Amino acid sequence: MISSLTYCYFTSRKDDIHVARKKLLPISLLDQYQSAGAGYDVLRYIGIADLLGPEKDTILYFMGKRLARMFDIRSVDDIAVFFEKMGWGKIELIKEKRRSLVFYLLSDAVAQRLHGPLEGDFKLEAGFLAESIQFVNQMECECTVAIHRKIHQVEFNVLYIN
Fold it and tell me: Which domain of life is it from (predicted)?
């Protein structure tokens, strides 16, 4: 068990992002945990939704950002590994533009979430992706989500703010 952690934080000063990273969790830590999925989905889409109420989307987004600060993410490949280990699906960088990045999230699990009886969302993943890309590229970011139910795909658009 890890007893003390120091997390990454960002502070904006004009076009500068100050980053402090000390003791972060390795992505390999996730190999020690396993989940069948159903319990996770019930907690996430029923329990947490009930608990957080109408602020659920905003809180999940910022939970994702906080989660990204806790892990040692150094590249887009690390982000892809993290997504798979978390059971979020296979994320791919599809398009790189000057002011944004476009990612697609695909997998059988994503298709099940999109067509299951529980209303699935991807705000936690969006927050995680925004904060991870912010660290990797050293630019402030936010992330939007577009769900394409017919083709079982989730599109994340990471926008550079500066």
Answer: Bacteria
Give 18's strand partners.
Answer: 11
Nearest residue to 72 via CA among 29, 103, 104, 102: 29
CA dist 142 and 128 (Å) reads 10
- Report the SS3 class of residue 17: strand
pTM (2 d.p.): 0.79
Q: What number does CATH give the domain 9-160? A: 3.30.1380.20
- CA atoms of 54 and 32, how far apart (whole Å): 33
- pLDDT reading at 22 higher than 80: no
| Distance, CA of 156 to CA of 140 (rounded, Å) | 16
